């Protein structure tokens, strides 16, 4: 299948007063047409920075590309000028943000916010853009779009605003849509509606989706493939089924284990003990070593290479080395599969 | 909308009533009177003057008489300058103050907003530091010092502008600049911090992610949201400039209303005190109303009238 996006050895850092924060380190992944890739990880794992790097939305300085390339449709976005990026943003790649309450401009009608990119990228007149805006609002399931298009964001509910955001993002039929925690700020019923909507729209428009989230329930619902990020690195990647049923990285086990389960009477939440590494001075070896219950001496000093477990699954963990002791995933991580059947 | 305006005008009248009442009795409570002077007037003459102006009536009668006159916008005669009515004094001096005030507000707004935006866009760079040094200077230097400095540099040394009086446009420049300096600096700081906040907000990121150019993002998306605090500062600003202008009027020998206001108090010129106070209050209340209306125009979340909105 044709690759829309190939990210190779991408490293992004921020220069701060404390030193260089290495937020994304040596990250590689790819995305095919019509595929949904979920990037999961906890706060500070570098998933949002990765997403915003793809759009070149990171302020530079203080941010900078240290290394690597982002090949979108065969062209390296890292090398593009700001002016060239303006023609790609909103037209080829668009983005949906986490908080629909703050990501729409409060002093501009939703219609105008949709029209802007249509007028800029597709050369439409105001009238054409207005009509297309009504179609888009209808497409994302906003009732009475003829009236709603002239309203301001504060006249929309939270779920409707996120639908409005999606309409803005889809305005120019982008090849790739980056959704940065699109459901985190919404309540559960609205979450399901938004995920359904995104899935339907993907089928209609053929856009590839990168879904940034820390919610494995969302991943189970929407993703074809999953990349698990930790400490600025991708520690494990595979198809959704592989990650849920056959995860090999202790961090992925931890993530699966910390999911609350329906059949569980225990009300305590399982957490992974410890906190993420300081990216000002990231550990030389595996970033998860300090919190990993199975950590060995080698983990602290050497970053493991990826072990290819199947054509899609790759895991960076010393446990998979033939010299390492055999470790079985904990009970809680296996039960993580239950959410898929939800 | 009409209903809202009627309601607001009602509140304005109510506020005016309280202002008139409080000023009237406070003024009477102050020791001395319009005819008190170092040279004692013969008692008979003072008696006669008091009778002529109705000052011998009981206070409540004077108060009610005054309310009746003021209701038809008649502020009565001046005690100090018997040939002139207070209306004459106001009509004569208001144009000077209004021109001066309008010019100062224009300068403060346009340059203040510009400085603030530049500072925010060049955050922590040379442009930011320059703008903020200007702003701190503007806030710390009182306007009378600024006035003297401007007179010295532009009128005395460079001989470019007239040193005082108010006869032509060139005459208005120095006093307007002196009057505008402090509010200008204040607006620049206000604009900078609010612009910085807006520029880091999510919807600016959304605007960028649509591929809009830097210029469009800054002026169409950021500016309109960032200017709100400045608009709300406009109300108090109008008052500060109108009432604060007497120092500048004095220094530049401008026969404006601020000057009359201060002189009337030292003279215990009851009718002029009342007249100027009422006049200033009316200006203030109307300018606050206008600011509220502008606010509603710029930010759709603020509903001025009961129309439209969150159904």
TrEMBL record, chain A:
Key words of the record: ATP-binding, Cell membrane, Membrane, Nucleotide-binding, Transport
SMART domains listed in its UniProt record: AAA
Record's bilayer topology term: Peripheral membrane protein
Recorded GO MF terms: ATP binding; ATP hydrolysis activity
GO CC annotation: plasma membrane
Principal location class: membrane
Superkingdom: Bacteria
Subcellular location: Cell membrane
GO biological process: peptide transport
Domain ABC transporter: 5-256
NCBIfam families per the UniProt record, alphabetical: oligo_HPY
Family in the record: Belongs to the ABC transporter superfamily.
Name assigned to this protein: ABC transporter ATP-binding protein
Organism: Lentibacillus salicampi
From TrEMBL, chain B:
Residue ranges annotated for the ABC transmembrane type-1 domain, each copy included: 94-295
Superkingdom of source: Bacteria
Membrane spanning residue stretches: 9-30, 96-121, 133-153, 173-191, 230-252, 272-298
SUPFAM superfamilies: MetI-like
GO CC entries: plasma membrane
Record has Transcription as a keyword: no
BP GO terms, sorted: transmembrane transport
Family matches, as Pfam families: BPD_transp_1 (PF00528), BPD_transp_1_N (PF19300)
Bilayer topology: Multi-pass membrane protein
Ribonucleoprotein keyword on record: no
Keyword vocabulary terms for this entry: Cell membrane, Membrane, Transmembrane, Transmembrane helix, Transport
CDD domains referenced in this protein's UniProt entry, alphabetically: TM_PBP2
Localization (cell): Cell membrane
Family from the record: Belongs to the binding-protein-dependent transport system permease family.
Protein's name according to its UniProt entry: ABC transporter permease
